[in-house]
Amino acid sequence: MAQAQLSLPRAAAEGRKNACPDTVAGLMAEVADIVGDPAVGESEILRALGRGLMAAAAAARLPGLAAEAQLPFPAGQGHAALPADMQHGPVYAFLLPGRSRVRVAPDLAALRREIRFGARGRIRCVAVGGGRLFARPAPTADATLTVGYYRLPDPLVTLSDKPACLPPHLAGPLLVSFACREIFERLEEGAEGKKPQTAAYARRFEAALAELVALAGPAVIQEEPVDVPGSWDGGLPVFGEDWP
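-> structure tokens emitted (244 positions)
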């Protein structure tokens, strides 16, 4: 007996990229309707929404903000500038060509303890400090590292912009509650310490943020303890020549 063929509709690739249904225009209208104060202008609401997006991205490692960059390390140079848009990371590093893995240390003290200052050879370990990525050993020939990190979110500027990096079911609750909390905090100033609307929307934002962190993972993930020595052991100082 012939089997029936079931044909399901396929989502367009562009639709998958922009799954978030909330635009800036819609979010602004929702906030304005909640606040109900004609003195609160669109520019104030837009700024509050933007700060809410930055706060959410700072609290969690959002998959939509995952990025890679290639950092050059000339021969003999043990550090390179980090990407300007990096917010969290790096979360991994590879040495090119061949993508051989390089260990990411939790801090510069751990890096110094791992490999002594002045060592030369193939890069095996890196750590972040002072806006730069420090590598040990310093390469004896020009090298390139690919680093993975989480970038800053795209700013909300036009009415058609979307907070596409946020999960669709949390974008509205996060940004609207954050914006309402900030605006009500200003409107309820001088209320003898009682700010019921501010407190209510603060609780809503914290609840949505907790759900986001549980879904995407917290921003800071440290898998090993910080290795800061308690005393000088007679060797090179921990805070030495290469410390930023």
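Residues 1-16, 222-244 have pLDDT under 50 and may be disordered.
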